[in-house]
């Protein structure tokens, strides 16, 4: 394995040709030996919800899957019936993204698609939000995602192909009351996706931002407050997974789930006064 001062598990030293990591696999890693004859997708948050549904959708088309999350037993349930490799990891840990990328590249030699779906929420007035929860949401929803992309991206650039899929949220487009920090993290992901897409022009590597509305998962229970709005209605994790799959297959830069959620985002740009009045009433 080649390391630089940045700590990346893939960066070659200046003047050297990129090469695959050759370090032994981390302790406790299990699964089939490295395979280079199948496309590889690394899916975070794969123990449940959108991540698990996305993993199953890619498995249907014969992809080699690398599934990560904190709960090994849930990951193994997602992997059941497939050839997926389970790589439990805590992305919020200081070295979590680097160690995961190192393990993933060691196991398969490449990552063709990274689906960054891990995330948490918190609901309530911002003035009452504990400082520790501010840090938790930003660490997992934003910082860990950026660090993981940073670790995986050089191998994609070296291969001249690949796609980074970021799971955003309509909350990052319009802002949602009592979800200020979550909205901020998802808005930052949206800006990051656009900036990174411009940087990667001509490299063969694409960036997709998937923007779902509320999704029918355990996300709301885990954040401590149920979803109590009548609109927009919750969509299934499978519907979001299908949008991820279509975006990768069609090289799409941004998709909304459902598609009509693009309208509020466009209204904000075209008629900000009208947008704000509607947001004050319904947001």
From TrEMBL:
SMART domains: PKS_KR
Keywords: Oxidoreductase
UniProt entry tagged with the keyword Cytoplasm: no
Principal EC category: oxidoreductase
Annotated spans, Disordered: 1-35
MF terms in GO: oxidoreductase activity
Regions of compositional bias (Low complexity) in chain numbering: 12-28
CDD domains assigned to the protein according to its UniProt record, in alphabetical order: SDR_c
InterPro entries, alphabetized: KR_dom, NAD(P)-bd_dom_sf, Sc_DH/Rdtase_CS, SDR_fam
Residues forming coiled coils: none
This protein's record includes keyword Oxidoreductase: yes
GO cellular component: membrane
Residues annotated as domain Ketoreductase: 39-218
Enzyme Commission code: 1.-.-.-
Family: Belongs to the short-chain dehydrogenases/reductases (SDR) family.
UniProt protein name: Putative oxidoreductase
Lineage, highest ranks first: Bacteria, Bacillati, Actinomycetota, Actinomycetes, Kitasatosporales
